[in-house]
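Our consortium's second objective concerns turning raw sequence data into structural hypotheses that experimental partners can test. To show how far this objective has progressed, the report includes one record in full. It was chosen at random from the queue rather than selected for favorable results. The single chain below, 385 residues long, was entered without modification.
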Amino acid sequence: MSAAQTIDLKSTVVSGSDLRILLGSDHLSYGEIHAALKEKGIFVGNSDKAITVPLLSATLLTPDNFTRLIESSVSRESQPKVKVASLDLVTKDADWITPLKKNLFDDSFAMLDEASGIDFVTNPTLVVSDPNKITIPYQIRRLDFSKDWIERELSFDAQVTIERQGGELKLEFTSTHSSKETELVNKKITSRIAKVLHCENLVKDDEPHSVTFGSLSNEERIRYFKRLTAGHGCLMPGSVNDIDICLDANGPELPDDPQIAWMKQTVRRFNVDGDRLNDIFLINDEQYYKHYYILRMDVTFPFKVAANQGGCRVTFSFSGSRLISSSSELVFAVVKWAHEGSPNSDAKKFVSFEVQHALRSLIEEKFNLAISEQKEVQENTAASA
């Protein structure tokens, strides 16, 4: 099927090699393919595409099956996702906004040079909200004419916010993206901001500080994720809905303990339901922490913001969840809201703002604790050497 042939979602029955090409593309996630198999009554313990794509390719997708698969992909990409970072200012009276207004978007700054089929609907523009806060909103348009024959034009919103809280010597970055292209543009903008301010001797470093995969060991990272369920401020302690776990191929060899040895050749990645966490030895026994890492964790937090109460479902993961590197950054997304009563739109916006602020504080507080424990262990090790 050629790229010029678009799909009629209402009548197309996709199968065989055409389906395999589509399923193997970046458009569809591992979880979406796994869910499509479940719809057909096919249950597998491993959601790796090497296993699920051949299975689903051997079936027929009805127009309804196919429509749900595509819409799920679009919905996932459009979901706002957030990264947080920070920069330390050199002095309290630093004017950090003026240099950005002058030098951030000069002619040398190419934000889309690595992306084809992408252009800006609304160009990134620096907006000064107040003396301590700026925002940079924008929108991109992506036109897909790809080998997997999905032809569609999609638009994605994104925004970078930089704020100085009170008199603190710290700039807080909040980068909200949707598609992978806006994630890349946000990364370029935050990196450019740091370099502009560093050249003006206003900040200590030329890259923002963020929670990265390589900042912590497997053991430290699992403890960190577990602590993220504690809640903060308006967020009450949360309950885990499910987690995705991956055995570390570069980690130490699995022990011969029969409880875990069977996984050596059979399992690489698996999902654990929140209700079963207390029964899973990998989670409860710290001796196994060094053998795996958490790819994603889904938590529901009750919240109370002024007179507003309810719950929010939050997903924590690292960017590039299928190709994680040491530089992959922690990302969170509020994927579902449940409000008690019927709050108006202004109340919902206020709740969203307060919850996001609480999540940021939770992420930073628990990360700082993990780093302080890491340094303490290193100092004790050095002292005893």
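The partners drew two points from this record. Residues 1-6, 145-149 have pLDDT under 50 and may be disordered. The chain has three domains: 16-77, 81-209, 213-384. Both points have been shared with the crystallography group to help prioritize constructs.
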